[in-house]
Amino acid sequence: MPSGRRPQRVKAETTPAPSLRLSCVFFKTGAGNEPVRDWLKDDVPAEARRTVGTDIKTVQATWPIDKPLVASLGNGLREVRSTHDKVEYRVIFILDGNTMVLLHGFVKTTKKTRKADIDIALERKALREKSS
């Protein structure tokens, strides 16, 4: 190669990301904390976190979608239903226009979603609506 010339870079072929029908944000507390993001980072193993993230992205890309991936909990609450290694992960969200707002995440240990988990999501929903 002649001196002073740099080899030409070959541009890698990339597949465009599918267009998403919904954007997605984490609920943020008044103190700036993001409880669902913290739960995912601190309490959910990496492989399960990937599964939950992929399921959320599927909801974003294919909305409207129903069971088995999304279930309605009433009062505008819906849940993304993910399973990894026989563990049931749930992320409760609301829709704000074309935006998923992730309100609460938890591991489901009972047949029916616990009232305490729904109450947390409802409280966060009310806080978000109050601040809007």
What does this structure look like?
It is a single chain. This protein is an alpha+beta fold and 132 residues long. It has one domain (23-131): RelE-like (YaeB-like fold). The chain is built from 3 helices and 5 strands. It has helices at 35-43, 46-62, 115-131; strands at 23-26, 70-74, 77-84, 87-96, 99-108. It has a 5-stranded mixed sheet. A hairpin with a 2-residue loop joins strand 2 (70-74) and strand 3. The protein is globular. The chain starts with 22 loop residues before the first strand and ends with a helix. The mean pLDDT is 90.
Instruction: Please state the structural category.
Output: alpha+beta
Helix content: 25-40%
The CATH architecture can be given as 2-Layer Sandwich
Quickly name the level 1 CATH class. Answer: Alpha Beta
The chain-level mean pLDDT equals 90
Counted beta strands: 5
The spatial strand order of the largest sheet comes to: 1-5-4-3-2
